[in-house]
Amino acid sequence: MSEPTTPALELKGLSKAYGKFTALHAVDLTIRPGEIFALLGPNGAGKTTLIGSVCGLVKKSAGTMKVFGKDLDQDPTGPRYQVGLVPQEINFDPFFSVAESLRIQQGYYGQPRDDARIDEVLTALNLQAKKDSLTRALSGGMKRRLLIAKALVHKPKLVFLDEPTAGVDVELRRDLWTYVKKIASEGTTIVLTTHYLEEAEELADRVGIINEGRLLMTEDKAALLRRFGEKRLVVTFAEPQAAMPAAGTRFSASLSADGRTLTYVERDNCAPSGELLRSLYADGLPIAEVETRRSRLEDVLIEILRGRPSQAA
Ligand SMILES: Nc1ncnc2c1ncn2[C@@H]1O[C@H](COP(=O)(O)OP(=O)(O)OP(=O)(O)O)[C@@H](O)[C@H]1O
After folding, report:
1. Pair 34, 134 in one domain
2. Edge-to-edge strand order for the sheet containing 287-294?
3. From atom 2 of ligand 1, which residue's Cα is the shortest distance away?
4. What residues does ligand 1 touch, defined as CB less than 6 Å away?
5. ipTM of this predicted complex?
6. CATH number of domain containing 253
7. Whole-angstrom distance, CA of residue 174 vs CA of residue 298
8. 33, 150: one domain
9. What's the domain range around 115?
10. pLDDT digits (tens, 9 = 90+) for 235-294
């Protein structure tokens, strides 16, 4: 049996009320060290409130929060030195240069000046050429790169990325994905919120779904896609079929009203769609086009938020 490891983050009954409005309802969440966890949910679900509570930007109403086993009520500052946050909003002093603002950040986290680390982060985020520019002279995308550099320069062990690639170009998205994977492989724990589900699909080991302040589920991404996902085979015939072909009946496929397309939904424990296709060819049906489509995280999330998963657990 493996040794129990101390979670990177442990939330128990975390609640937040803004006046009469409850933004977080007793959230329990454990993040394992070294994992990339994507917290997904619609606008206003409570993602930023959760992250803000851990980072000390939001005052929780109830519950406990532990970072690497240390209770933030008992020590609100020490454990937070191990945390980095990429906030949604750009928040730096426009009068410092890029390098200066990173040096200040190192000092703020009680670290000695480390120019090599600054260079490393700037290179990883493709910002090296702007090292001596004033931050106010950066473009929007470059500002976002700097925001990420600032969150990482003190080598945090737990990093929150709150919509890190909102409104940025494809190149930064790719750079960031590569860098996030690299630091995760070196042991950094990442909690990510994103509305780009492709981003969660690319990066996350595990996914949590939050809605209206309630954590609905947490699950390994691959298992979630297997459990709720489906594969769809759509066959278009060159000539309309008057009735469902025999093979389609055997596989419980469906035929469109105009007889032109046959659709087969393949789920776990179903016969593979390749078998149906082979039967259709063997029966000499006039197949013009074949298309397959696998559920993406986006499809799964929509189903779960609608409260009617495409397949029961
Ligand atoms: N300072 C505040 N005062 C009152 N209500 C607030 C405050 N901050 C957040 N809220 C409310 O709390 C709820 C959760 O907001 P939060 O910013 O955590 O959502 P989110 O999941 O991060 O959304 P988004 O995806 O849009 O960033 C929202 O209904 C929001 O209006």
Report:
1. yes
2. 254-255, 261-266, 231-237, 287-294
3. 18
4. 18, 21, 23, 41, 43-49
5. 0.97
6. 3.30.70
7. 19
8. yes
9. 9-220
10. 999 999 999 999 999 999 999 999 999 999 887 667 788 899 999 999 999 999 999 887
